Amino acid sequence: MPLLEPNPQSLRPATKRTPAPDRVPELQARGTPRRLREELHELLGPEKVLSRISDLVRYASDASPYRFVPQVVVVAEDIDDISTILSYAHGKGREVVFRAAGTSLNGQAQGEDILVDVRRHWVGAEVLDGGARLRVRPGTTVVRANAALAPHGRVLGPDPASAVACTIGGVVANNASGMTAGTTRNSYRTVSSLTFVLPSGTVVDTGDPDADALLAHAEPRLCAQLLALKAEIEADAELTARIRAKYTLKNTNGYRLDAFLDGATPAEILRGLMVGSEGTFGFISEVVFDTLPLDREVSTALLFFPSLPAAAAAVPLFNEAGALAVELMDGNTLRASVSVRGVPADWADLPKETAALLVEFRAPDAAAREAYERAAEAVLAGLDLVAPVPSVANAFTRDPGTISGYWKARKAFVTAVGGSRPSGTTLITEDFAVPPDRLAEACAALLDLQSRHGFDAAVAGHAAHGNLHFLLAFDAADPSDVERYAAFMDEFCKLTVERFDGSLKAEHATGRNIAPFLELEWGTRATDLMWRVKEAIDPDGVLAPRIVLDRDPHAHLRGLKTIPAVERIADPCIECGFCEPTCPSGDLTTTPRQRIVLRREMMRQAAGSPVESRLLASYGYDAVDTCAGDSTCKLACPVGIDTGALMKDFRHERHSPREERIAALAARNFRAVETSARLAVAAADRIGDRVLESVTGLARKAVRPDLVPEWLPEIPGAAARRLPRTHRPAAVAVYYPACVNRIFGGPDGRTGPSLPEAVVAVSARAGRPVWIPDDVAGTCCATIWHSKGYRRGNEVMANKIVEAAWGWTAGGALPLVVDASSCTLGIAEEVVPYLTEDNRRLHAELTVVDSLVWAADELLPRLSVRRRVGSAVVHPTCSMRHLGDEEKLTALAGACADEVVVPADAGCCAFAGDRGMLHPELTASATAREAAEVTARPFDVHLSANRMCEIGMDRATGRSYQSALLALERATRP
């Protein structure tokens, strides 16, 4: 064991707790049963089998209120793996559930036996026919798929609110729709063809002209059964009419029986049945969509009404005017949305009875948009709107920023309301539809029902389609509260079906939540047919049992998860998974959601239990060490949960007092540390990479990998000992070269000025000279200490840099220009919590400007571009995302190159200062997809704006990245 290996017990929860009823039992502490693990190792290889208890727990939760711990998790790489798993399950009498993003709200992505991860290796999209169609793999997010279509002016039909996280496989398997899809733009209507694997292992490509012939050869019995069911349904006129009527509303409850009416052949029938089958009929390995036009002319309004029924009554008017989206939000939803970045703070003061409609018109051209706006104004003239708080405008706008803010608030419905629920309560998301012309009546009935059962739910939904969502919070550990929820569900389902003839699941699919009520909605005849379809396709019941069909009338109460309180920063988490696509460690160890899920399981356990001990043993590396600390999870989370900050807190908790003292001493004496580091880098050039790799490798084994960086060949040579000479009197800004640019030089083999020289030169060239203070050496943005959780060292350097900057800028009279985006973020924002009260006042007077912003806003308009390269690819850093500066990077690149490419899979490189040297495997995993995109073609220049991120991308791609300011200096050089 390394000498300074941290003690896992330092992360043991100190809070007093009572073991939860749904805690993982001690018998499972060792993870997957030995025989199951060994058999799957032999079949698939150990690298594809996740068997530790920490693996099983982190996959046990999804966005739903349910929690089931699998026996094993398999990470499938291809169809051969899927077929092997299904064959094994058939032979051993086991069950299989497929899981991609885990954003489903009814427990569809959970299983109690073999759970198969079909996200990690199943990403990719191919544009066909100039964008008219899109071939996409199931692990691809909706946002990523639409990014591929956007240059062609096309878009997918389904547009769920979770598009940033949910994947195509889940969207199709649940027939998810969203804000605008309704019944005409959903997956069922826009899927052109599917490739899927049946439970038997047969692979079907419905787009193959020979699909039916191949299917008949492989599955003659199934083909005969499907055609017999089709004939039986078509012979029953009453049933046929009922099926057609049910799908005039949004409806994802049960199987798509209209597939038998719409499909003429077995392959066509299966194509329809697979949509909305929730993983119970097979694994969807590829989807081809018919895409839709991306209408870019938009006009949107957020309109406020005195009550929910009043807002609902206006919905048909906007439908008639041609609105593509009419979204409803009640007072609880609006008030909870203030936790979402950009939402007006005065929404917190809205009366509880207030409701709002988000109305949007989209058109292909300006003339059509103006026609819609005239129709909308005519509707507005007849409405009694209210403006309870100053921010309410009640008017249509074309401003993209305002429109984006409205939609951000609406899409955060589940997470914002869930984040504001009482600590320790479980969140249930219900989803139903009624005829749109009865929406106001349904809203009134729902409010009355909630009141009678003691719930104060939040309500929102796709009002244009009669589709409402509402959220309930209750304590799943309290039997009486579970009984209250059960009584509510019984009455709610009867109300929806018997009074409104509505759909119990409009777009979230049946899942475990509504399976017991399926027959209530569909009746005995149709429900029996659904059972027969399941038995025909999956006669052994291998796939996802109890997800759609369940004869247990109390099945929806089984597996409800408790939500024990955890650290305050993470406690609002509802485990929605929105954070996961942005997390750089997601394909290596854990995601932000999983880090919180694991922590909650520790809180469910009795102190010192075998399960808790094993979770703690793996948590250090899986959660704390391999967190890049970039906090992009905070940006992705609608309520701003910063799991990166939590991991930094845990790093602090693992430090010994001696380590904290040494870190503070380094901060006080950073001038000597900086000089030593530069000399060491210079000496490395003479020693050679191979020797240094060997020496650091031995040191890492002896001391601790998280303390000793690994030497990487991509590390550049030392920076010049002296910074460029500048003059203060003429300067219009203070230039602060970050310590990383005072230690490391530019890309190896590159000729020309250093970054500090380039910034000074190009600023002077634009008539905006800058001044570098003589005493910048020995100062730092404090990120070194902040990212590692060294609080005392962070406090020392944070106060030191603010005091220095105050003096340099003459009390904030001049802006402070910083040449590394992470350092800009550090000085501008991250130092603040660690400042003294006096220094907080000084900091408030400072104007901290990233060099990208300085160059794009102050220099570029005053410069003449004299030479350009053909193409540039850029790497936006995570700090740029926090600062909102990404477009400045592309603007600078656009001045230097004829073509600028932002990789669709660009994300945090996870180099994170020196974390990519402490854990090179983290950067390798984080950059894999972006690197594949970058290396697929040549580029003339590779640009970013942070030296350590540039080194990380050098290592990932084998290409040489440099600051965009170096490219700007060259492009404008006389």
Radius of gyration: 29 Å
The overall pLDDT, averaged over residues, is 94
Unreliable stretches (pLDDT < 50, length at least 5) are none
Largest sheet: 7 strands, antiparallel
In percent, how much strand structure appears in the residues?
5-15%
Q: What is the tally of helical segments?
A: 41
Produce a short descriptive summary.
It is built from 41 helices and 26 strands.
Verbal overview:
The chain has 974 residues and is of the alpha/beta class. The chain has a seven-stranded antiparallel sheet, with helices on both faces. The protein contains 41 helices and 26 strands. Helix 21 (592-604) runs antiparallel to helix 22 and helix 34 packs across helix 36 (886-896). Helix content is 43%, strand content 12%.
Essential attributes:
five-stranded antiparallel beta sheet; 974 residues; single chain; alpha/beta
Q: Helices, strands, pairings?
A:
Blueprint (H helix, E strand, L loop, with lengths): L33 H11 L4 E2 L2 H6 L13 E4 L3 H14 L3 E4 L14 E4 L7 E4 L4 E4 L5 H8 L4 E2 L12 H7 L12 H4 E7 L5 E3 L5 H8 L1 H15 L2 H10 L12 H4 L3 H9 L8 E8 L1 E2 L3 E9 L2 H14 L3 E6 H6 L18 E9 L2 H15 L15 E2 L2 H12 L1 H7 L6 E8 L5 H14 L5 E5 L4 E8 L4 H21 L11 H4 L3 H20 L54 H13 L5 H16 L6 H5 L6 H12 L2 H12 L1 H18 L1 H14 L30 E4 L2 H5 L11 H11 L4 E2 L11 H6 L2 H18 L7 E3 L2 H10 L6 H8 L3 E3 H9 L9 E6 L3 H6 L2 H11 E5 L13 H4 L1 H7 L1 H7 L6 E4 L2 H11 L3 E3 H9 L2
Parallel strand pairs: 2-4, 3-4, 19-20, 19-21, 21-22, 23-24, 23-25, 25-26
Antiparallel strand pairs: 1-2, 5-6, 6-10, 7-11, 8-9, 8-10, 12-14, 12-15, 13-14, 13-17, 16-18, 17-18
